[in-house]
Design goal:
Distance between the termini: 15 Å
CATH topology: TIM Barrel
CATH class: Alpha Beta
Shape: globular
Strand content: 15-25%
Radius of gyration: 17 Å
Length: 253
């Protein structure tokens, strides 16, 4: 069994087909991560409709430039997450972004939201699914101030220094289909021990022009097996065990 631990499943138009394709290649569980105040209800809705989809709720760092009302909506978002704490498996996608968000005037609000989400994860004792693009130092500097069960760094592409720091701290790293062309993703796979790797599609993000889907993590799995010289059977068991450790709630139903 393979598990996609980071997918924006709410953004697919033909979600039934996406799930069918995934199951054909052995992808049995999909964590659907929220991004915006508007999307969280939809994430919950599809997780109720499809037994293979599990919700993770949070505010993406790019929301500060896409939603002028996000600061005013923050308490409402927190209340929604608390209300659904028994149903969600993680807080995410959350984090900081200084790559796609160029306006530095938005950075204080971004940090405020991030810290609010981390505090929530600490309070609810839930793992976090993190975005760190271009803000790795600040993210890694911030995390030790919070007591969080587990941390997953999604699609890491930063410097080797912070990759090593994350490894030393025992963070998990989820690997996307970009492994087929990205030196940074390949480096992450080679440097992180097999006990701290996870699989993700980040769909429907595009990879070399092709829309990402959960089914694609089968190819990611094959690439990891090759790069780390681990048999497919051993790696599948290991990745499943890793997922159980960081996201135990998706194995409760």
């Amino acid at each position: 069994m393979l598990i996609d631990i980071h997918c924006h499943a709410n953004l697919y138009l033909a979600i039934d087909e996406i799930i069918r394709e995934a199951k054909k290649v052995g992808v049995e569980k999909i964590i659907s991560v929220g991004m915006s105040a508007l999307s969280l209800e939809r994430v919950l809705e599809i997780s109720n409709q499809y037994e293979s989809i599990y919700p993770s709720l949070g505010i993406h760092p790019e929301e500060v430039q896409m939603n002028e009302q996000i600061e005013n909506q923050l308490e409402e978002v927190v209340d929604l997450i608390k209300k659904n704490k028994e149903n969600i498996c993680a807080i995410g996608e959350i984090g900081l972004d200084h790559h796609f968000v160029k306006n530095e005037e938005l950075y204080p609000l971004q940090k405020k939201i991030f810290e609010k989400m981390l505090l929530l994860a600490q309070e609810l004792e839930l793992p976090v699914n993190l975005h760190t693009k271009g803000a790795e130092k600040l993210v890694f500097d911030t995390l030790p101030s919070y007591k969080i069960p587990n941390v997953n760094i999604h699609w890491y592409s930063g410097s080797e220094n912070y990759l090593k720091l994350g490894i030393d701290r025992g963070y998990y790293f989820s690997i996307t289909p970009a492994i087929s062309y990205s030196p940074a993703v390949k480096k992450t796979v080679l440097m992180v021990d097999k006990e701290h790797l996870l699989l993700e599609s980040d769909g429907p993000v595009k990879y070399a022009g092709k829309i990402g889907t959960p089914a694609m993590i089968r190819e990611v799995f094959t690439s990891i097996s090759k790069f780390k010289e681990i048999s497919a059977n051993e790696l599948e068991v290991q990745l499943c065990d890793n997922t159980k450790k960081i996201f135990p709630k998706i194995f409760e139903k």
